[in-house]
Amino acid sequence: MAAIGSDEWLTLLVGAAVPVAAEVTGKVSVTIERSPSGKVGWTELYDSGVLVAATAPAEKGADIALIAKFDEFVAMLEGASDPAVLFMQGRLKLTGDMGMFMKMLPGLLTDDAAAGRAELASATDA
Questions:
Q1: What are residue 29's DSSP bridge partners?
Q2: pTM of this prediction?
Q3: Which of 22, 24, 81, 101 qualifies as a FRET site for 63, CA 20 to 30 Å off?
Q4: Of 10, 43, 17, nearest to 104 (Cα)?
């Protein structure tokens, strides 16, 4: 089992990711608060809609910065929560390029993406 945000987990994240909209190229920083390890973060690099790398830590200046509490992130990972709903409720915070996020969102909500998250969740020490 891999801890969220660990190097092992980030490798699994890249392997489990499915492509999002082809016009998405840039960086997304993710910060998870209140995890068993404290605050953890990483930066995801997308090229033409494909997640090509994920490395710690969360970088300042990314195109999008996402912040979520650990329990809510795990619920998204396990498919119990929808990221769009969490965002509208203010439980998933986003700064940066809202247009890029809106382009990514449909790809993140597909059955293939859900299967990838389930695969990642099964290997996650939550």
A1: 43, 65
A2: 0.93
A3: 81
A4: 17
